[in-house]
């Protein structure tokens, strides 16, 4: 990461990443060219390549930025002092809020993996790293809710999230979110009272 003389991240790098983040999320990764990012960020091509040696590096940095935002948001829920089931409800609520937002264009990670299907590609690996972190975090929380093994419930939660993210682009977001939140609540109630 390029820093200025005061040790701060370069303003040009920040502008490039903010521009790429906005356009990549709204329009897709392959459809947006370097020339457009350079023009909208008001930098030269040389500046872009000094910070990001290739477009793939810029895409990975974009995904890492989205990951950090999600990690920060989940971190707030984790340190809220709420019981694990309420933290998971808060996480689900945050996901639903995103789906209902006017700027929602699906999951940045699911969108990226659709464009980069090769598991060896750095973009695909960045998606898998994020998903592994999310699954592990949710599973760790579910381990604090009920007695049954948490791994199946963790995978279930992630699949509910993935389905809601896709359905939120295809049908009424309010209905999608209502279904998603109800199913997360049912998953948690089942863990707390498997016989009920």
Nutshell version of this structure?
By secondary structure, the chain is an all-alpha fold. It has 9 helices and no strands.
Topology (SSEs and partners):
Blueprint: H1 11-27, H2 34-41, H3 45-51, H4 55-78, H5 84-100, H6 108-115, H7 122-142, H8 150-170, H9 173-192
How would you classify the helix and strand content by structural class? Answer: mainly alpha
Q: Briefly, what CATH class of the largest domain? A: Mainly Alpha
CATH architecture of the largest domain: Orthogonal Bundle
Radius of gyration: 19 Å
Provide the CATH superfamily of the largest domain.
Answer: Tetracycline Repressor, domain 2
| Straight-line N-to-C gap | 53 Å
Number of beta strands? 0
* Strand residues, percent: under 5%
Count the domains: 2
Question: And the CATH topology of the largest domain?
Answer: Tetracycline Repressor, domain 2
Biggest sheet record: none
| Low-pLDDT residue intervals, each spanning 5 or more residues | 1-5
Overall mean pLDDT score? Answer: 94
Organism: Amycolatopsis sacchari
Domain HTH tetR-type: 10-70
Keywords: DNA-binding
DNA-binding region: 33-52
Keywords:
196 residues; mainly alpha; Arc Repressor Mutant, subunit A; Tetracycline Repressor, domain 2; 2 domains; 9 helices
Descriptive account of the structure:
This protein has 196 residues and is mainly α. It has two domains: 7-53, Orthogonal Bundle (Arc Repressor Mutant, subunit A), CATH 1.10.10; 54-192, Tetracycline Repressor, domain 2, CATH 1.10.357. Helix content is 73%, strand content 0%. It contains nine helices and no strands. The longest helix has 24 residues, at 55-78. The chain is elongated, with a radius of gyration of 19 Å. The N and C termini lie far apart (53 Å). Mean pLDDT is 94; it is low at 1-5.
């Amino acid at each position: 990461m390029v820093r200025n003389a005061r040790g701060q991240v370069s303003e040009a790098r920040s502008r490039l990443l903010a521009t790429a983040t906005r356009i990549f999320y709204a329009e897709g990764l392959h459809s947006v060219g370097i020339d457009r990012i350079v023009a909208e960020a008001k930098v030269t091509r040389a500046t872009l390549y000094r910070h990001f040696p290739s477009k793939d590096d810029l895409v990975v940095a974009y995904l890492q930025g989205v990951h950090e935002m999600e990690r920060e948001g989940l971190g707030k829920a984790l340190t809220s002092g709420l019981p694990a089931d309420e933290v998971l409800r808060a996480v689900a609520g945050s996901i639903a809020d995103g789906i209902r937002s006017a700027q929602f264009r699906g999951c940045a990670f699911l969108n990226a993996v659709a464009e980069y299907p090769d598991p060896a590609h750095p973009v695909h690996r960045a998606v898998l790293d994020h998903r592994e972190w999310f699954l592990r975090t949710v599973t760790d929380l579910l381990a604090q809710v009920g007695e049954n093994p948490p791994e199946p419930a963790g995978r279930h939660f992630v699949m509910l999230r993935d389905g809601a993210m896709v359905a939120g682009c295809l049908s009424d977001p309010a209905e999608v979110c209502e279904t998603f939140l109800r199913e997360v609540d049912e998953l948690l109630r089942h863990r707390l009272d498997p016989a009920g």
